Amino acid sequence: MQVITGAGRFTAPEPGESRRYDEQLRVTDLSLGTYSVPVGGVDTQQPHNEDEVYVVTAGRARLVADSGEVEVGPGSVIYVPAGEPHRFVDVTEDLAVLVLFGPAEYTRSQSQSQSQSQSRS
Question: Where along the sequence do coiled-coil regions lie (predicted)?
């Protein structure tokens, strides 16, 4: 067992940055971190090769993805499949999001991601 402290807590980006990601856990099949985007911040993330689950712990924004868009706030839980372009926009309150990657972020190659996506179709 491991207690993960600080997960889901908003942390302001460094000066000159528009967002912040802090990884709190990494094991072979899972990673977890907190993604923070302040009001006026810009989410510049690129699609990941891993599946993601977002759990919004604070703030308000809209998540825009190829498959649609949704308003998010505390308690929102969203699944984004590997390879799907998506980003948070219109951040109206400092946004803090727990991000769970399966498998751990940056461990799946693009070809693995594509074959996973095709098997879900």
Answer: none
